[in-house]
Design goal:
Blueprint: H1 2-16, E1 20-30, H2 36-53, E2 56-64, E3 69-77, E4 93-97, H3 103-111, H4 117-128, H5 132-136, E5 143-148, H6 153-162, E6 166-170, H7 181-186, H8 192-201, E7 205-206, H9 212-219, E8 227-232, H10 233-243, E9 251-258, E10 264-266
Parallel strand pairs: 1-2, 6-10, 7-10
Antiparallel strand pairs: 1-3, 4-8, 4-9, 5-8, 6-9
Helix pairs in contact: 1-2, 3-4, 6-8, 8-9
C-alpha cells in the first residue's frame, strides 16, 4: 500500500498539468535491517500503479538510510495547447474538487487508535486512487486552470489558483470530507503540517461562518489528494457527472471571481 500511494502521489503532478505519464524512476531509501520482503512489496505496489497509469518503470536509484523513503521521478507528455497551469484561472469559472479532504488528520488519528479502521480504509482508498480518471475527462472542456491538492492543503493550493488577480469562493457546505475527519479535529487531532499551513495562509482567507473543524480540514496536508479544476460554469455540471463515474466524492465546491478583500473566501 505504501508503494501504491507513493506512486499515485508522484503521478498526480503530471495529471494536474494535463499530461500523460510515460515513464518513471524509483527513488528509494531503506534502513539496512528492513526485510527484503518488505522492500519487494513497496516496489511491487509502485510498479502496479505505474502499470495502471500506462507508464513504464525504467529503473531507479536506491540507498541505505535511517528511515524508509520511497517515491518516483515521473516523466510525462502533453502539447502546449493542452498544458494546464495552476495560476491561469478565469473569473466566472466553477471549481470541481475530485477527492474528499482529511487524509492527514485521519491517518494521524488512526496511528493512535482514535480513528476507526473503516475511516482509515476510506483514506487509504482515496490516496491510492489515480487522478488519471478525472484528468482524462477534462479533454474537450473549457478548463482554465488545474492543480492537485497535496502538502499545502486545499487552502495553500487554492492560493496558487487565485494568483494576484482573483478570489476563490468556496461553498463550505459543498466540500467533500472523509468520514470521521471532522470528529477527529474536534477531539484535538490537528497535524503539524496543517498548523504550518494555517500560519502561512490564514491571513489570506475569510472563513466567514465556516466551522473551525472544517477550517482545519482545509489546511490539512493531503497525500495524493484530488484535482482542483477551474472550468467554464456552463460546462461544470457535465464535467462533474463524467468525473463522478470514477470519483464519486467529486463535487462542485466553489467559483472564481474578480479579486476581492481576500484571496480565498468561504460562504
Amino acid at each position: 500500500m505504501f508503494g501504491k500511494i507513493a506512486a499515485a502521489n508522484a503521478l498526480s503532478d503530471v495529471y494536474a498539468m494535463g499530461g500523460r505519464p510515460i515513464m518513471a524512476l524509483n527513488l528509494a531509501c531503506f534502513p539496512i535491517d528492513v526485510p527484503v520482503e518488505a522492500i519487494s512489496e513497496i516496489l511491487r505496489g509502485g510498479a502496479e500503479k505505474l502499470r495502471e497509469a500506462g507508464a513504464v518503470l525504467a529503473g531507479g536509484h536506491s540507498i541505505y538510510g535511517k528511515e524508509i523513503t520511497y517515491g518516483l521521478a515521473v516523466t510525462g507528455l502533453t502539447t502546449p495547447d493542452k498544458l494546464l497551469r495552476n495560476n491561469t484561472s478565469c473569473a466566472g469559472h466553477s471549481l470541481i474538487l475530485t477527492k474528499a479532504l482529511g487524509v492527514g488528520i485521519i491517518m494521524a488519528a488512526h496511528r493512535d487508535g482514535e480513528a476507526s479502521d473503516k475511516a482509515a480504509c476510506a483514506a487509504v482508498a482515496s490516496m491510492e486512487r489515480l487522478n488519471r480518471y478525472a484528468a482524462e475527462k477534462i479533454a474537450g472542456f473549457n478548463v482554465s486552470a488545474c492543480t492537485d491538492i497535496t502538502g499545502f492543503g486545499l487552502i495553500g493550493h487554492s492560493l496558487e489558483m487565485a494568483g494576484d488577480s482573483f478570489t476563490i469562493i468556496f461553498d463550505h457546505a459543498a466540500l467533500p470530507v472523509l468520514p470521521e475527519s471532522l470528529e477527529c479535529v474536534n477531539e484535538g487531532w490537528i497535524t503539524g503540517g496543517g498548523t504550518r499551513n494555517r500560519e502561512y495562509a490564514a491571513k489570506s482567507v475569510n472563513f466567514g461562518e465556516t466551522p473551525t473543524s472544517l477550517q482545519e480540514v482545509c489546511f490539512d496536508p493531503q497525500t495524493s489528494g484530488g484535482l482542483l479544476i477551474a472550468v467554464d460554469s456552463a460546462q461544470a455540471g457535465e464535467l462533474l457527472a463524467l468525473i463522478r463515474a470514477d470519483d464519486p466524492a467529486a463535487a462542485i465546491v466553489g467559483s472564481v471571481t474578480a479579486l476581492g478583500s481576500h484571496a480565498i473566501c468561504f460562504e
